[in-house]
Amino acid sequence: MKPLRSHLLAAALLLAAPAALAGTTLDAVRQKGFVQCGVNTGVAGFSAPDSAGVWTGLDIDLCKGVAVALFGDAGKVRFTPTTAAQRFVALQSGEIDVLTRNATQTMARDTALGLNLAGVNFYDGQGFLVLKSLGVKSVKELNGATICVQPGTTTEFNMSDYFRANGISFTPVVIEKVEENINAFASGRCDVITTDASQLASIRVTALKNPDDYVILPERISKEPLGPMVRHGDDQWFDIVKWTLYGMIEAEEAGINQSNVDEKLTSKDPTIQRLLGVTPGMGKAIGLDEKWLYAVIKQVGNYGDSFERNLGKKSQIKLDRGLNDLWTRGGLMYAIPIR
User: In sequence order, which residues have a C-beta less than 8 Å from that of residue 155 and are 6 or more positions away?
Assistant: First the structure.
C-alpha cells in the first residue's frame, strides 16, 4: 500500500529531522548490533508473524539478508510493524533503519520524501477481488459497486482516476487498517476490495473462508514496483541494502542457491568466484567481509529460494513467478552485475 496524503507531513518531518541522521545510519546499526526493519503489519508472503510471533515473508528475508551481510547472522534483526500512513514517517524519523515493506517506489518518494529507492524486490499492479457469485468478469463491469480501500494511498487515487476515465461510478468504503478492510469485505459491507494484486492473492488464500468463492479480476490498473527504501544521506548503508537485494537476484542468475552454495565455492566460473568472495574485492567495495554474499545465500537463500518459500509453489499462496521471474525466463528480475 502506498500513501500520498502523508507526503507533506512526511516531508515536513524530514526537514525538521536533526542533521545528525544523515550519514550515521550504518554507524548506529553497528553500534546497537542489529538491523531495525519497518515491515507490514501482516501480509502473508511478504511480512507476517505466525502464532509464535516468528516473522516470515519475502520482505522479512530481505531484512535478514541485510543483517547477514553486515553481521553474518540472520538473527540480528528487529521488526517494526507499520501501517501505510506510518511507514515513511518511521523511516524519516530514524525509528527504523530500512523499510522492507511492500511499498511502491515513485519519484515523489525519492525526491519530496528524501528516500533512496534501493531496488525492486517485487513487480506488482493494482487489482480487484470480488465474489464469483457476482458474475463480474472485468473491472469495467463494476459500475455502482462499493469498494473497500485504504485511505491516503495510491491505490485509492489510481482507482478514482481509472474509474473516472472509464465513466464508472462507485462508492468507496475507506478503512485504514488492513485487517478491518478485509473484515468489511468478508462481511459484505463492500462488493470489492482493491490493493496490489499480490496482496489480494494473499488475502484470498489466508484471510477469507472458502477462497474458491473469490476471484481476482484480470485487469491491473497501475504499475507497483515494490522495494526497500532508506533515508538520503548514508551512501554506504544504501549500498549494503541495495547490493544485498541485487546479490540475491544475481546468485539465482548464476545458479547458486541455499542447497548448493558450499559446493559452488570450488567453481571455476569467474562470476561465481566473485559473488562468493573466492576472488576478493566485492566485499571490500562496500566495507563488508569478502564472504558476505556467501553468508546471505547460506542463511537466507537466493531471490528464487525466498520467492518460492514465501509466495510461490512451496507456499500456501502459490503465485506464479510471472513478472518476478528472471529476465532470462521472460520476467523483469535483472540484477546490476556484481563485478
Answer: 1, 2, 126, 149, 194, 195, 196
State how far Cα 145 lies from the chain centre.
Answer: 29
Report how many helices (DSSP H) and strands (DSSP E) the chain contains, helices first.
12, 14
Residues 58 and 306 sit within 8 Å (Cβ to Cβ): yes
Per-residue pLDDT for 23 more than 90? no
Rounded Cα distance between 281 and 308, Å, is 31
Say yes or no to pLDDT of 11 above 50.
Answer: no
Q: In the structure grid, which three cell numbers stand for residue 71, read together?
A: 553481521
Question: Based on the number of CB atoms within 10 Å of its own CB, is 263 exposed (0-12), middle (13-18) or buried (19 or more)?
Answer: exposed
Helices in 254-325 by DSSP H: which ranges? 270-275, 292-299, 303-310
* Cα–Cα dist 18/98, whole Å: 18
Q: Is the pLDDT of residue 38 over 70?
A: yes
Q: Please state whether beta strands 48-49 and 55-56 pair in parallel, antiparallel, or not at all (unpaired).
A: antiparallel
Task: Say if residues 93 and 107 touch (Cβ distance below 8 Å).
Answer: no
Cβ atoms within 10 Å, residue 32: 12
pLDDT at 9 over 60: no
Distance separating alpha carbons of residues 100 and 33, to the nearest angstrom: 18
Which residues, in sequence order, are CB contacts of 186 under 8 Å at separation 6+?
Answer: 207, 208, 209
Torsion of CA 125, 182, 84, 150, to 10 degrees: 80
Name residue 308's amino acid: E
Query: Residues, the chain, total?
Result: 339
